[in-house]
Amino acid sequence: MNEIRTTAIVLAAGQGKRMRSNVHKQYLLIRDKPVLYYSLKAFQDSVIDDIVLVVGEGEEDFCQKEILDKYGFRKIRAIVCGGKERYHSVAYGIRSINWECDYILIHDGARPFVDDEIIKRVLDEVGRSRACAVGMPVKDTIKIADEKGYVASTPDRSRIWQIQTPQAFEKQLITAAYEKMLAEEKELPAGGVTVTDDAMVVEYFMKIPVKLVQGSYANIKITTPEDLKIAEVLI
Predict the structure, then answer these.
(1) Euclidean distance between CA atoms 202 and 172, whole angstroms
(2) Rounded Cα distance, 110 and 11, in Å
(3) CB neighbours of 177 closer than 8 A, spacing ≥ 6?
(4) End-to-end CA distance of the chain
(5) 10-57 per-position pLDDT tens digit
(6) What is the pLDDT of residues 62-113, one digit of tens each?
(7) What is the DSSP letter of 2?
(8) Which residues pair with 167 in a beta bridge?
(9) Do 218 and 234 touch, CB atoms closer than 8 A?
């Protein structure tokens, strides 16, 4: 029986405009190390075989020198230039995988608190379900607002999850889903479709259910200056 091979795509091409910083959020420091370092280290120390790092245009050499070489990350198989939207960056990362791979994990590089337990749970589930996404049940009551800002409905909180990454998929499944989306992307706005995560691409274009896997409330995404302060405590 052939050995199962896995690749993690780590996305670090975002500009992080809500951070209100001249430095992209993935390169901001938490305890003297960049945000991106922590997510890469988690995959480096896990059972994941290979890593694809997707970065902003013109940042390839910087990441090679200041991240990969400086911290000794050995599993980085490719550094890929990202695209205009997040889904473009994911698609380019997927297309770069020209080696043997059975499952792909997609992770936001601005989530520094992914850990080995989360990665193991994701890998266990994707082998059963073909597609899964990390998340946690919401703690707060959620309200659906109407166009005037009034409460339209209150959904059952017990069935609502806040979605995180990594999200994992069979390689053939996620490859087909993204190629189909790129072929139809010009038609999406007219249909009122906004792609916000990888699970949605599989749900919408492949009609495949995505299993939810428990992540961690600490698995936050660094988006605002307040998140950076929280990260300093969590680290």
Answers:
(1) 11
(2) 8
(3) 169, 201, 202, 205, 206
(4) 40
(5) 999 876 555 555 667 888 999 899 999 999 999 999 999 999 999 999
(6) 999 999 999 999 999 999 999 999 999 999 999 999 999 999 999 999 999 9
(7) P
(8) 106, 133
(9) yes
pTM strictly above 0.70: yes
Query: Which residues are bridge partners to 201 per DSSP?
Result: none
Q: Is 1 exposed, middle or buried (0-12, 13-18, 19+ CB in 10 A)?
A: exposed
List the domain boundaries for the chain: 6-234
**Paired sense of beta strands 103-108 and 76-81, if any:** unpaired
- What's the fold here for domain 6-234? Spore Coat Polysaccharide Biosynthesis Protein SpsA; Chain A (3.90.550)
Separation of alpha carbons 60 and 235, rounded Å:
27
User: 166: cis peptide before it, omega within 30°?
Assistant: yes
Centre a 10 Å sphere on the Cβ of residue 170 and count the other Cβ atoms it contains.
Answer: 19
